Every structure is written in C-alpha cells, then in structure tokens.
Amino acid sequence: MKKRVSLLGILSALFCFSCSQGNAKSEINSDENKINSDMNKIITQINTAKDKVLVVYFSQAGEQYSVGVIKEGNTKIVADYICNYIGCDRFEIKAEKNYNMSYNDLIKVAKEEANKGELPAFKGKIENIDQYSTVFIGGPVWWGTYPQVMFTFFKEYDLNGKTIIPFTTHEGSGLASCVEDVKEAYPNANVLNGFSMYGHDVRTGEKKVIDWLKGLGF
User: Fold this and answer.
1) Are 78 and 39 in the same domain?
2) Which of 51, 74, 95, 138 could disulfide-pair with 169, CB 3.0 to 4.6 Å?
3) Same domain, 28 and 97
4) Phi, psi (5° rounding) for residue 194?
5) Total domain count for the chain?
6) Which domain holds residue 7?
7) Same domain, 206 and 137
8) pLDDT tens digits, residue range 101-133?
9) How far apart are CA 139 and CA 117, in angstroms?
10) Cα separation values, 174 from 52, 169, 177, 200, 218, Å
11) What single DSSP character describes residue 87?
12) Neighbours of 155 (CB within 10 A)
C-alpha cells in the first residue's frame, strides 16, 4: 500500500513539474512576443519620424495672368496633389499683408518688395520643424523668384540638414532663381533641382505631378 501511495506521489510530482515547465515556456513565449511587438512599434515610429514630409507653400488666388480670376491659387492645387499622393503634412504661408488686388497692381507691389528686400510677416507657425526630414517648398514666381513673404519663412525656420524640394507655378518663368535662392538660404541642405508647372496647366496636371513624385522615389 505504501509503495502504491509513493508511486502515486511521484507521478503527481512529475505531472506538476511538467505543467509548471509548460506554463513557464508559455509565459516566456508570451513575453518574447510582447517584446517583439513593442520593438516593431518602436522601429515603425522611428522610420515614420525619419521619413516625415512637409509641404510649405504660398499661393495667390484672385486675378492671374493667363488664367483670369481664380478662387484657388495655382500653387495650392499643386501642393494638394503632392499631399494627397504622399499623405504628408502641409503649411500654407498666409501673408498678413493683403495681396487681394488686380494683377497689374500686384506685379507693381511684388516688384517694389523685391527691390527693397522686404520681408512681409505671415500668420501661423510650424510646431517642431525638426520632425521633418524632407520639405517641399512651393510658390508662384514673382519677379524672378519666390514672393518675398517666403523669404521671411526662410529667415524664421532652419531647414539645413534636410532634403528640400522646390516647386513653382508660373506662366513662362519656370523655376527662375528659386532653386539658387533656396540653396543660398540653406547652404547645408540637400536642395534638389525642383519642379515647375504652368499655372494654366495645373487643373489638369495631377498626373504630371504624380509622375514627378514617382521619379523622386515617393
């Protein structure tokens, strides 16, 4: 009888030991899965932050050369194409100065600003510019370069060390001196050659913009 009890005790102990090992292995596997899951989340967050893209642009509605009076600025439309395709953040430079005037009056104001090197103020601000590794910079061409309010932005935000991609809308000026001016503002940035589009083409030019983005690797 004692032998039987002893044998049952041994079998019971072995069974309990086996169960405890199984539970331990299960807990270890569970912990490993959780650690791997947490690591994947961290890696994803790091990669997302590293590749975060921002589109900064100034756009002017109202009376335009060649396209007449428009409710939505040409550059804004291109910026929308970029953001919709990439899924990135955007910041519109909105001047505090009122540019709502006829085309002829606007070019006079733009010329005067450029000659004086004026830096008009703009509304709003970008929180944590450091989170972006790539910045698109877009605007119309006014007197051979970006509107002066964009140079105010260049003074206020340091984009050195980032990849900068200029783009413009125009009616014959192309990129003008915009790329060179961005390089001068940010000598330690990786400034790409850029992209330009005729203002009268932007409303039917989404494919052209997307093809350009694909060529950049987006």
Assistant:
1) no
2) 74
3) no
4) 95, 180
5) 2
6) 1-50
7) yes
8) 998 999 999 999 999 999 999 999 999 999 999
9) 17
10) 27, 7, 9, 13, 23
11) T
12) 9
